[in-house]
Amino acid sequence: MTTTLNARQEAFAAAYVRSMNATQAAIEAGYSANGASSKGWDLLRNVKVQARIEELQTEIMARNDVEADRLIRHLYLIATADASDLVQLHIDPCPRCWPDLDARDPARAEPDPECMTCRGRGQPRVAYTPVDQMSPSAKALFRGVRHNPKTGSMEVLMHDRLKAADMLMRHLGLYRDQDEAPRADPLRDLIADICRRGSTAPLAKD
Ligand SMILES: [Zn+2]
């Protein structure tokens, strides 16, 4: 229920919530620079303009809340992500492990402990999760790929999980003194619980 403002008053209100400077806002709204200062103060005292400014500020705060929620969720996904959702290390038998077995034989899945070549250590193989198969937390953790054309090596880059956890803890006030009574906050309790257990909990889908 916006009370009607004229175009200049509306422009003043919009400019004022951006700069919080009445003189500047009056000039931006098209009032003459001469006397913009007193015009700005007059407009600020106008109840209709005041109501509109409050309305615009409420809208901005609501938007900021949404942004903050999004950021918290993103940090939470990074902090609780499992690196093995992005890159997996497998140990395959070496070519000498099972000379008598067919490559498709399930018994060939593990290295031969008696193998004289690898001594049962097998050979490592790295597997990458395709981006379209990543979980939301793996996607949040994923920062990109660094490819070295000279060596042909590929490095999966990840965001810093500890830094994300630290930002989250700070934002949620988890570093406050113990004797200060904390506000009830289910998300904070969940994160504190995960940090205590040192494990990653499966995330509910959106
Ligand atoms: Zn072997």
Automatic annotation (TrEMBL):
<keyword id="KW-0231">Viral genome packaging</keyword>
<dbReference type="InterPro" id="IPR005335">
    <property type="entry name" value="Terminase_ssu"/>
</dbReference>
<dbReference type="GO" id="GO:0051276">
    <property type="term" value="P:chromosome organization"/>
</dbReference>
<dbReference type="InterPro" id="IPR038713">
    <property type="entry name" value="Terminase_Gp1_N_sf"/>
</dbReference>
<dbReference type="Pfam" id="PF03592">
    <property type="entry name" value="Terminase_2"/>
</dbReference>
<keyword id="KW-1188">Viral release from host cell</keyword>
<dbReference type="InterPro" id="IPR052404">
    <property type="entry name" value="SPP1-like_terminase"/>
</dbReference>
<protein>
    <recommendedName>
        <fullName>Terminase small subunit</fullName>
    </recommendedName>
</protein>
